[in-house]
Amino acid sequence: MSRINDTFSELQSRGQMAFMPFVTAGDPDMAATLALIRELAERGVDLIEVGFPYSDPIADGPVIQASYTRALEKGLHVNDIFEGVGSLKGENIPPLVAMVSYAIIFRIGIDAFLARAKESGFSGLIVPDLPGDEAADFAAAVKKHELDLIQLVSPLTPPERVERILSAASGFVYCISVAGTTGVRNELPAELQDQLEWLKTKTDLPLAVGFGVSRPDQVESLRAVADGIIVGSAIVRQLEPPAETSAAVTQVGEFAAEMLTATRNN
């Protein structure tokens, strides 16, 4: 059992959903990112997704793309992320999940990257540009390093591909709520519930919903079919310039507390 498995199992035993906020590493700088991770941990979030800025993201909407650009323009390096996250070891930090392009992993070297991720304190990875049904070898390498490989499933993923994707997944399944990129949306699609119910017949892994979730009231519609929610753009936009960092961190913490309360209502 991994830390991610343990987290979901504990929440499921209490009839609660997981809340996983997303933060962009290095926006506005790594000191702010670490302060934000600590703030979210103190608020009691269940997991934290950490985005590794990349110049050509394939799934991120304009808010997160802009945050990646800001971080890269300031010279952020992968080593800065690993060193920063590694400095949190020994603190009461929930499981950390890296959202990272396979191009970054490949450039560094698969084993070298995974070893560094594990050493720094990450519990799992999401690799959006690695075809999920072609990830068997990479999944084996991830498992060797005692990490989880979280796979993405979208509303447009054909059923036969879903089963191949799930065979290489561990930790939980990242369920994309809509076709498209990340971003705040007013409504979640009506067909999402049917998709999640079908996925539950195909895997015992927890299902966490992301892309478009941004308000506490959206949680209620997912309670019966999802095991967790992921919120990114609604958080990242609160750190956009000219936001004052310490105030923005507190504001994100307050938002996270509201979302967390929504996941705890039974």
Tell me what you see in this structure.
- The chain has 266 residues and is α/β, with parallel strands linked by helices.
- The chain has one domain: TIM Barrel.
- It is 45% helix and 14% strand.
- It contains twelve helices and eight strands.
- The chain has an eight-stranded parallel barrel with strand order 1-2-3-4-5-6-7-8, surrounded by eight helices.
- Strand 6, helix 9 and strand 7 form a beta-alpha-beta unit.
- Helix 2 packs parallel to helix 12, helix 4 runs parallel beside helix 6 and helix 5 crosses helix 6.
- It is globular, with a radius of gyration of 17 Å.
- 45% of the residues are buried.
Q: What is the CATH superfamily label? A: Aldolase class I
Low-confidence stretches: 180-186
> How much of the residues is beta strand, in percent?
5-15%
| Major sheet attributes | 8 strands, parallel, barrel
Task: Give the oligomeric state of the chains in this entry, treating copies of one chain as homo and distinct chains as hetero.
Answer: single chain
Gross morphology: globular
Can you tell me the CATH class? Alpha Beta
Structural domain count: 1
Using DSSP, what is the number of strands?
A: 8
- The computed structural class is alpha/beta
Supply the number of helical segments.
12
Distance between the termini: 26 Å
